[in-house]
């Protein structure tokens, strides 16, 4: 790249993009620097006796969850896209609804359903006189953890794979049928290979969510990296060892992402004809029709209907005691902080995406990759990195205040700034990916025409670019808002004093064994998320049309 090209790219968009990237990179630098710092006795003990267990449990949960979610998500996407069966149009979007239930809410809900005083065992004892072995219903285990993650994370794979199959040319499947291939043969020899990129992309999202989780493993008492980081941080009061655990976890994430790239490989599937038409559902006949309907219905019932019904029943039991003025404050806190963080994320995403679109180069490609790294970093690692960074910043501010003889100073650690900063790092990738895809659809021709007519880049950005990608912006806003509203680890450990959200309040109730009292906050999260997921589904369908 020559000097004139560099000078052309060093404009306001570039400066704003570099500042945004710097904010994302700083916490990661804090973690990696501490990873190579001298070790203490706590870290030696963790490394020798505890770290193998953390790695073993984490890897088992990831591998088992990844396998099961792949089977369920891919099969559901195949059935809903390729075949026509009763209530297919309803299940097409309803199978996404389990995403509205955060895994930690699903965990305590199913524990409440299956334990000794739960509805299942109570009904067996009182109605049928049957007393069962408690081990049969013990969900608070590593196998139960996999069960919970599978139920509430499979929609990631289902959504991505269904969208991919829906947009594929039907000619490949039709040609396979003409050649005499059966449905199962077509699924394994045609659909799976061409959908590999979409499936792997969904699995990577599932694995990132598993690594980010704190609520499920904490409530079930499973020792993983997330629980280890926070127990070392708060239990041992050892920030250095906690940062080393966070750094180890980041190395594990990098290894997973590298393996994803290797597994995905260089294979690509494209159309040989410009006449591309989506798959047309094929009516099922006989027992196949009802077998598929039963399978889809059972998954939907276990993943959404049953936990939602139980939460609703518990809500009615404790509504009068929980629904107070303080509860309205929780709702306001949740909406306010999610809205502020989402707006900031969308501003950063618009700036970076627009800059990388207008000035394509190796440098902007690196910027786009770095922008999406935050979502790959688990919340536990981000939380401890951010608080370490802000503690250092507060110390510098206090030192400066003493030098200037200032009696009052602004301390960052007691404000929402730290929490919102962590949200921006964690969820910028979601907003960026949605807006980048919107820019890719509209291209640059309208932008270039606007510039030729005399408008500068800022005028073109607000008057041409934004109106053309408003659907992508709305979709990004909804997706980011939902994820922030459900977020637990970052909110739980970075929220200021006397500040709680619906997610943290529900988790506190559950930690105090007040499961019924946690239902109202949980059901509000589920209802708000479900409504926004439905709106997002309609927006994406409209964009696809």
UniProtKB/TrEMBL annotation:
Keywords: Cell inner membrane, Cell membrane, Membrane, Transmembrane, Transmembrane helix, Transport. InterPro entries: MetI-like, MetI-like_sf. It comes from the Bacteria. Pfam families: BPD_transp_1 (PF00528). Residues 55-258, 331-536 form the ABC transmembrane type-1 domain. It is found in: Cell inner membrane; Cell membrane. It is a multi-pass membrane protein. The chain crosses the membrane at residues 12-37, 58-81, 93-114, 135-157, 186-207, 219-236, 242-259, 290-317, 337-358, 370-392, 412-435, 515-535. Belongs to the binding-protein-dependent transport system permease family. This is ABC transporter permease. It comes from Exiguobacterium aestuarii.
